[in-house]
Amino acid sequence: MEELIARAAEAIVGSELTIALTGAGVSVESGIPDFRSAGGLWEKFDPAEYATIEAFRADPEKVWRMLREMDAVVRGAKPNPAHTGMGELERMGYLHCIITQNVDNLHQEGGARNVIEYHGNAATLSCLSCNEKYRADEKRGNETPRCRCGAILKPDVVFFGEAIPYDAMNRSFQLASAAKALMVVGTSAVVSPANTIPSIAKRNGAVIIEINMERTHLTDSITDIFLQGSAGQIIARLVEAVKERAGGKG
Ligand code: OAD
Fold it and tell me: Taking the model in full, what pTM does it have?
């Protein structure tokens, strides 16, 4: 493992543009379960029934049962060493941007500034009827948050069947095309189109560094350096290895 971490650190220090794609695994050590592992959210809530935009439109009260549960877990969560370590890499000038599929704001709370929220953010709510927007904490406590027009509000996270925010998609594509190194952290990389980012980067010559507890379909196909373990522990070691090899760019 020491040798693999050293290779990853060298790739990062030698890269002109390093970006990261992160998923739910990054926040597991903050106490937020992921979606597809044993005990994950999709074991409890069938995504076809709870996570599609059709499901929300058909029965928003039902979908809010899941959203309230997620909100309660996310609200108390604090950034872990994976978030803070990536924030530190950014501060040192070795991580240009984090593209995250997470909606928990923990990368930003962990010190990262340049974060693309590919699946939106749960901090704001929108009315699908009149387009009015609200802060989620303004509406917390209500059983099911409603707009002043009466409609049930939807958090500004991307449900299955909804488009990725245009700017997030566009910037991610450009960065993936230009990156010299890509860290893929805590994602099963099965959800499209976020999961096209690693192959776009690879095609354009980026070194793919994958950090995950388990092997994924990327591990034997496009990953160059696989660091198996918890994101918090691996990233902390990686940050130390980067520091040893470089005086810092920033
Ligand atoms: P998944 O639940 O599909 O995958 C989480 C990944 O993190 C798995 O590969 C785990 O092995 C890994 N993992 C778990 N704990 C870890 C840890 N402590 N350290 C490192 N890795 C760990 O979650 P995502 O890939 O993020 O989208 O899922 C992508 C999208 O699917 C989500 O954004 C959400 C979901 O449906 C929508 O709802 C649109």
Answer: 0.95
